[in-house]
């Protein structure tokens, strides 16, 4: 037993029902009509349907013809202008005069506030010995100050 669509009211009913329980349309006549059409029409490849309801054979299928050429890609004008401006600007990495990478502002603040955690970010490639000396010196100074404080 499967659910099929009533040809009259388009609601789901049992495939074994003789009449639609919603509108009273006779299902035996519709089934006989569909079988007669299937016998008269040549066999064609069936489509695989995953979870859709059976199609009403009385309604013709809508077919969309393939386009002769693909539609052009539509892009906002501002996006193209922005891309051209970015392409015109030369890309230069930010490097200090001594060849090391700069310490970002957030890292400076966090090394000052929580040096035991954030000073380890200075061990990444590109930071100079001077930057590491300041960071780890600040950490050593805070450890020394906390160990010498009176209790």
From TrEMBL:
Keywords: Membrane, Transmembrane, Transmembrane helix
Domain of life: Bacteria
Membrane-spanning intervals of the chain: 105-123, 132-149
Designated name of the protein: Zinc ribbon domain-containing protein
